[in-house]
Amino acid sequence: MSEKKIHEDQKYIDGLLKNNSFIIQAIYDKFVPKVINYIKQNSGDADRAQDVVQDTLITIYNQASEKKLELTCPFDAYFFLLCKRKWLNELKKSSLKEVTINEEVLYKDDDAQELAFETSLFGEKQALFTEMFQKLGTACKELLSATFKIKSMEEVASSLGVSYAYARKKKSLCIGKLTELVHESPKFNQLNY
Amino acid sequence: MEDQDYILFENYLLGDLSKEDSDTFENRLESDSKFKESFNTYKELSTFLENKFENEAASTTFQNNLKNISKIYFEKQEAPKKVVRFKPWQYVMAASIALLIGITVFNNLSKPVYSDYANYNDISLTVRGEQDALMHTAENAFNIKDFAKAEEAIKSLMVLDKDNAELKFYSAVANIELNNYDTAETMLISLKNGQSAYKNKAIWYLALSNLKQKEYDECLEILRTIPEDADDYNKAQKLIKKLD
Lengths: 193, 244
Description:
Structural class of chain A: mainly alpha
Order of helices and strands of chain A: HHHHHHHHH
Radius of gyration of chain A: 20 Å
Distance between the termini of chain A: 20 Å
Number of strands of chain A: 0
CATH architecture of the largest domain in chain B: Alpha Horseshoe
Largest interface: A-B, 42 and 38 residues
Number of helices of chain A: 9
Shape of chain A: globular
Low-confidence stretches of chain A: none
Largest sheet of chain B: none
Mean pLDDT of chain A: 86
Shape of chain B: elongated
Strand content of chain A: under 5%
Structural class of chain B: mainly alpha
Low-confidence stretches of chain B: none
Helix content of chain A: over 70%
Strand content of chain B: under 5%
Number of strands of chain B: 0
Largest sheet of chain A: none
Number of domains of chain A: 2
Mean pLDDT of chain B: 85
CATH class of the largest domain in chain B: Mainly Alpha
Helix content of chain B: over 70%
CATH superfamily of the largest domain in chain B: Tetratricopeptide repeat domain
CATH topology of the largest domain in chain B: Serine Threonine Protein Phosphatase 5, Tetratricopeptide repeat
Oligomer: heterodimer
Number of helices of chain B: 13
């Protein structure tokens, strides 16, 4: 990817990552009203908007903490696109409802489109990974949790009362099992469109 | 994938493979798309798990804080609008208040007031000599409508430059604002009788000074002396119509 200039609105991303209440409050005051409006105009209400906004901010937080999220477009456009995408997905899920989409606000900003796409893909993957992790057996869950919390594999092995070699092998196999669960999920294929 | 493959993934990611095994591994990634897909997911899951467990505490703190801010924000949004039912006597009261407001507004509309006309722009004093600092004080104070301070600064400037028409004019305006009408009008009359660029402006403000004091007849009389080539001629004519 080419070097792109980081937008000054990166401060919102950094603020979220630092759990800066002042910044979070500013995001609500500045950018959320538009989202509420959009959702209300498209078969939703304030309660649904509250959930969409919250989930979106958590996804941004997670991406920033896992991958170093660098904003190359205004936060406004990026955030709105993400919320909109999330809302449209929710509408699709509950397809019983008649969906009327009010397409008034369009962003021509390619950077925003691209970044929002990346982040929502990231969010969907996270949700899938979390769901599949819950399906693992207790032994695997405990081992993986210990492995990533305690950095040293030797300590993990001794805390679980197994040999180092066994613990390490078990770790690979547990992540392997998780890989299979993810691939078997119908949601996985829907991700890679 | 076989168990062996997952063990290989882990060893590759930890950098535990020999150069040779590593090359073989990378070649297989190139040629075997199933192998590559599994490896990519394995790698992503490793990063995901690492982040999930390492930042669990920070993430929970963040989410709790976020939920709190979100709750407060949406509660404020949805604060039910209170429906107040009026009792008959309250209607009477409301009507009287409305009437009172109406009368006040009407009264204000009926007579033009000084503040509608005194629309001097921000001033920018011409710099002469070395009194820059004082000049800035005067300018700034005037522009933020701290007329007492402005007047004081201008007075000091005028000690050195007593015939400066610009200073005299703004000093007069500041004095009108401060309700020191006599001081203001003395200066305006001297400007009016002089030949400076502020001659006509001085007449206009002399009229406005009277308007502010509600001396409508005198105001009218002065307005009528404003010559047609004055900047404020049109405004003056309109004001005459309203006062007449």
